[in-house]
Design brief:
By secondary structure, this protein is mainly alpha-helical. Helix content is 60%, strand content 10%. The protein contains three helices and two strands, in the order ββααα. It has a two-stranded antiparallel ribbon. Helix 1 (26-51) runs antiparallel to helix 2. The chain starts with a strand and ends with a helix.
Length: 98
């Protein structure tokens, strides 16, 4: 790997023009899925409220339940990686309290 200075920072240039792949930790996919489930539940509830007739439906409870399961999976995997409760930074604290 070659390196050069660009604007005061050292940038790595891989041989043969290859760029290093950025990987996303697996537990982040669980967090993204939980956020999506909660978002779907909120959008569904807002649509129901705008119609003027709100009745709690199984769909909302299912979306919230799946979001809870995915968020719990994120925290469990993160805790296994750290070897303790995952509240070591502000991001994890927010997820833990949510």
């Amino acid at each position: 790997m070659l390196s050069r200075h660009v604007g005061g920072a050292v940038c790595g240039i891989a041989k043969f023009g290859r760029q290093p792949k950025m990987t996303v930790p697996v537990e982040r996919y669980f967090l993204i899925a939980s956020t999506f489930c909660f978002l779907v539940a909120v959008v569904h509830t807002v649509i129901e409220l705008r119609t003027g007739v709100f009745r709690p439906k199984r769909f909302s409870f299912l979306a919230i339940g799946l979001g809870f399961i995915f968020q719990t999976a994120f925290l469990w995997i993160r805790g296994q990686e750290l070897g303790r409760c995952p509240i070591t930074n502000l991001f994890e604290v927010f997820v833990f309290l949510a």
